Amino acid sequence: xxxxxxEIKTIRKKLDLTQSELANHxxxxxxxxxxxxxDQLDPTYTNAQxxxxxxxxxxxxxxxxxxxxxxxxxxxxxxxxxxKDAIKKLKKHEISQMPVLEKGNVKGMISESSILxxxxxxxxxxxxxxxxxxAPPIIAKDTTIDVVSNLLKFYPVVLVSEKGxxxxxxxxxxxIKTIYK
Length: 181
Prior knowledge:
By secondary structure, the chain is an alpha+beta fold. It folds into two domains: about 5-60, 434 Repressor (Amino-terminal Domain) (Orthogonal Bundle); about 65-180, CBS-domain (Roll). It has ten helices and five strands. The chain has a three-stranded mixed beta sheet with strand order 3-4-5. The chain has a two-stranded antiparallel ribbon with strand order 1-2. Helix 2 crosses helix 3 (about 30-35) and helix 2 packs across helix 4. It is rod-shaped. The model has no long low-confidence stretch (mean pLDDT about 90).
């Protein structure tokens, strides 16, 4: 993405920065920022690069990540658990889906929908493994809110991991809570 000098002021204001704060981050003078924003000066390539790098870095700091949205407590079931016990766990924790884990590894997902289908088919005496769905996407904890948002359009929940270890879950409500604090 190529930025124009005329965008410096707009981006700076969106990041809620003063000219002095931007100047400090970019290691240039505040008067240089003021003159560029007033279109009174064309900066050197080096100074322009410093300013744009600072804006880019500060923008990334503002981005919400999966780690900030996720639920740290992972409520899960094992593949061998009965459907009736899975229902009790969903009701107890007032959730609509949960991952199926075996020895810390994600095996699938069980949800109200998959349980309801099993009950309607007369399979309510079966085990979780018999009715579980495929595992949802597993993302890194530094995944941005934009990526999480796109995944949640297609999946009811995403799982968050760090170095292969499950760290949390994100459902649509978690994202809504993060956005509307």
